[in-house]
Design goal:
With 176 residues, this protein is mainly α. The protein is built from six helices and no strands. The chain starts with a helix and ends in a 10-residue tail after the last helix.
Amino acid sequence: MKLTAAGKADRATLVGRFMTPLALLLGGAGLVWAELPVGVLSVCVGLLLFGAVFNLGFPRLLGEDSLDAVGRHVNIRLYLNLLVNTLLVYFLMPAFEPVWLILALTPIATAVYGSLKQTAANAAIVSVIVMGLAVLDPENVLKDWCEAAARVAFVLLISFMIHGLAQRPLPRTAGD
C-alpha cells in the first residue's frame, strides 16, 4: 500500500502521539533510578526535554509538504530520535533496564509508515546498537548476552508484525 504525503504525515503524527509519551515515561523512570553524576544527569534531562519538544512539535512541520519533503523530514526525525535514544539507553540502562525499549521505537515507527525494506534496515540498525551496547559492558555474562539476543529478536519480530498490520486495509464496520 503506497502512502500519500498526507497519509505519511497522519501516521507520523499518530506515532508521535503514542511513542513520545512512552519514551518520556521510560526515560523519566530511568532518571529516577539512575544515580548519575550531575553532568551526565543534566545531559540526560536535556536529551529528554529536547525529545519532548522536538517530537511534540514535529508534526506541525510536515504540513502540506510534498511526499519527498515529508520523507526527508520523517527520516531526520527518526535518526535524530535514534541518536538521542541510544545515548539515553547507554547512560540509564545500568540503573533501569526497561529503558532499552526506546530503541525499539525507531523500527516500530518505520513499520507504521515505511516500506518493508526501510523497516528491515532500521530493525537491523537497532539490533546492531543493542548488541553494541552489550559489547561495551565488560561484565556481561552468558545471561546478559541471551537477554541482548532476546531484545534483538523482539525488535525484529515486532517491527515486521507491525509493518504487516500497517499494510492491511482497515476493516469496515457496520457504523462506517
